[in-house]
## 1
Amino acid sequence: MPALAVRLPSPSAESWDWQLSAACRDADPAVFFHPDNERGEPRASRVRAAKRICLRCPVRARCLNYALEAYERHGIWGGYIEEERRTLQRMRDVESQPTAAIRPGNADHGRRLPSSAVRAPTTIH
């Protein structure tokens, strides 16, 4: 499987100004990034605390969008933990793939599917 290229937003100040309005700006960063081997209720409690902060954040959508664009692998961004963002990223990646026409002869001729859904014919022996 090829490695994903990391796409970071441009370095201009305007690209990062949204962070000045973030609800987490004055919060302890440890709330948003789990320590090694954190499990169970301590982790769940920390995640709930971080998500409460995110819920009242005026730039939550921009934060999440940044994390998805940058393939941010760690921490809570925009109110989503790592696993939740991976799910969103997969959905976003599938939606952004170019489409390919269904092969002629099918009853659905003319309908379009993502190119990832079109596979080479399988031969059955």
## 2
Amino acid sequence: MTTFVWAAVLSAALLHALWNSVVKSAGDKFMSSARVALWTGVVAALVSLVTPAPFVASLPYVIASALIHVVYFLLVGRLYRNADLSVAYPLMRGLAPLVATAIAAVTLRELPDAVALAGVLALVVGVATTGLSGLAHGRIDRVTLVVALFNSVIIAVYTVIDGEGARLAGPDAAHAFAYNAWSDELTALLYLPVVLALRGKAAGPELVRDSPRSAFAGLAAFGGYAIVVWAMTQAPIGAVAALRECSVVFAAIIGVAFLGEPFRGARAGAALLIVGGVVALRLA
């Protein structure tokens, strides 16, 4: 992985943690996640106007990605009801890189080298330890734990779909960004009727609440994931997926500094593992 791609994915990790913190800090987590999804679609629509259309071969991946992202956003809205950001977020993200690496190995024959695999494993263990320390101290309930783990699998599946879809979308970064834009637009279009069905007439006013924060979160969500999608055209999917999970460090900092969540000793050890994984992926 080149230095530029490595640094870009770390920047994407920060953006991802930021928009998740917006959802966590909202009173109604479901509607907050819905606003983020819809604002992401608005940003995507603007990006699609200035980027080339993705190649036809990638369009089935666009559709599959949008469908699974609807499930992802529904689960994110459920996830933060009864758990700290710094606990729920790493549990949700923890298994995804390992599952994505396994899926990519089986379906795409994309096998990481020994150093990259060591980095992936270090990141996964560090991320999982961060979340499990919170579970041990009662910062998440068991239902939310199940939601977090299920969403890990969802994340892994859409990561592999988007990695391969972006590679089929065209030869350059503009096509990768276009692929992500089309997927996010379709996600928003599919998610809107779901939100309206679940919340009825009350959803209308809620969707336009807190527009500046939601627009910022939507921009962060689009930019953060568009960078990751592009990075997967430049480096192995599993390595990019693992490096992206450095977002848990940023989420922990945000949770402690701005949301009043506790920081315990086990998380410091987990942070060291994550740093070790980051270094290994840079060397791979």
